[in-house]
Design a protein that fits this description.
Creatine Kinase, Chain A, domain 2; nine-stranded mixed β-sheet; binds adenosine-5'-diphosphate; alpha+beta; globular; 3 domains; binds magnesium ion; Ubiquitin-like (UB roll); 699 residues; six-stranded mixed β-sheet; Four Helix Bundle (Hemerythrin (Met), subunit A)
Length: 699
Amino acid sequence: MANCRVSETFGSMVFNEAVMKERLPRDIYKALKKTIANGTHLELDVANVAASVMKDWAIEKGATHFTHWFQPMTGVTAEKHDSFIAPDGSGRVIMEFSGKSLVKGEPDASSFPSGGLRTTFEARGYTAWDPTSYAFVKDKTLYIPTAFCSYSGEALDNKTPLLRSMQALNHQALRILRLFGMTDVKRVSSSVGPEQEYFLIDKEIFLKRLDLIYCGRTLFGARPPKSQEMEDHYFGAIKHRVAAFMQELNEELWKLGVMAKTEHNEVAPAQHELAPIHTEANIATDHNQLVMELMKSIAAKHNLACLLHEKPFSGVNGSGKHINWSLSTDKGINLLEPGDTPCENAQFLLFLVAVFKAVDDYQDLLRVSVASAGNDHRLGANEAPPAIVSIFLGDELNEILNALENDTLYLGKEKIQMEIGATVLPHFPRDTTDRNRTSPFAFTGNKFELRMLGSSFSIAGPIIVLNTIVAEVLSQFADILENSTNFKEDLSRIVKRTIKEHKRIIFNGNGYDPSWVKEAEERGLSNLKTTPEALPAFIDSKNVEMFIRHKVFSRNEMHSRYEILLENYSKTINIEALTMIDMVNKQIIPSVLGYQKELAELILNKRAVSADISTCLEDELLGKISRLSECLKKRLDYLYEQTIAVREVKDSLEFARAYREKVFMAMNELRLVVDELETLISSKHWNIPTYAEILNSVT
Ligand code: ADP
Ligand code: MG
């Protein structure tokens, strides 16, 4: 595709605004627009016309099927395809798509996680069209983005609470904006740009690693002689095979309306990143799911495998996902950008300190939103931000806030007395030299960047938390300010008080430094190191009440999610343990025995020739391998026993803890022996690809 054509093909497979306007009858278009803008109910006659027009358009694009596309709590998307065909009564078919089929679907949903929300006898769930996210055609199918709920209306997916959190944030932000006289703003939404990291390796090599196939990460692997030490991969020249993959990925994403923008090699060998241009949270979430899906399917076409796991290789940087998050109005104003007038600046400061307070008050919730078995390998492991949540501000803004809090002079270029609502703040240029990459949550000039997510995450979870906790604090501010008799004074008091009370969450130093852990503890910040430690915070009553207050989750929904997260953790470790046992039995032990046999035969042969020939090397090697083999056997048995013993635990939290404390620990012990054996066994006998082979498999 020549570059000049990108602007023509961009969004060509999307039933977007332009297509709707062109193809829908005027009244239908208007009604649909109203539904999209205000979330109002869609009448069936409108839906019928929209469906019919959509179907004709999709057929022109080659579609034969349609699917309600949804995001159950598996972290990935789900789809069930139905063709458009319907019998015409004379043995032939017509292509049909009704408004009812567009608006609502009833997938047999009994096998999706519900955390007890849906018992099997009432297994039906339903999907409901989300008209705020455009339908699109992919793989000869019309995809309709939908929310997924139980029959009693409880959310079984990520989209429903995300949309609710956007509404909560909109409602509270508008209350604040009214107070500043911004009456023309109709809507405030969260804007999100997710940066996605991933690994690309050769498919043949991938297929030889059962751990990568079943678990997405390697469970064994000795350190290669060269990995990322020289930092020569970061921003390095992109190899042809990778470039061809990236090109096809971009083209397909563009057709689907995803604004793929930046791509580069990352720190680890075989690691890359893709970032799209930011867009509304709901769309960004759908698009990020598409990005992950297409990365996998397009990689396969290029004989590559795309690894989205957050830690595929031990000792090599894992993959994360950064969510760039800001608040913008329907007039295109970014509320996290300092304005040009004193009033705009006062407003900016209020939103800014609202985020501080929200992050400080609900540190635990943000931590939970990025908790998973995979991400436990990264957070706190000196490559990703620590499990301690803190905010990075940068020197200039820090100084300004200090001056505000203490009524001192701001000693920047101007040396001025900072006064809320009376001074104009400087804009904070995106400073590329002072990028603190160790901070979990950094202010980068006009947005915040949450850097704690694992690469395989749905971005919905952390956005739901961010949106809701900020909505909560804005509502507290609005409650005070709406009843204020002296707006300026109360505003100033709120800003100062919030800085004072919540500055413990601000940390501009090195998050990887061990001294930070100590300091954070002294500041009273929470440090929930592992998933089982973090998850109970989700159902802490303060957090449950907050979500209920903003109608984002019901109590039932929160408890069910908590159960799903716990279960997911235990299942993940269980699959990893079983895969390890399988690989040791079927691949590692045969390799070790094969080499031992060869060595033993060599020793015997040599001795048969003459007792004087030295077998010193072989003896020593065989001795070492034999001792390690014994240890291997013991640790294998121990791991096996732990996987059995854990089944006795009934409580789901205790179950997850047992997986962490018993099974996972036993896995680590077993891995140590295997990795040591790998360094001794000849390549001829070692029958699984090594780290060196995997990481350099794409040439
Ligand atoms: P870096 O790697 O330097 O952090 P990238 O260019 O890789 O930056 O990604 C930055 C991301 O931030 C992009 O997705 C970009 O669209 C997004 N972004 C920029 N401005 C905003 C904003 N106001 N709100 C949300 N996201 C934004
Ligand atoms: Mg980046």
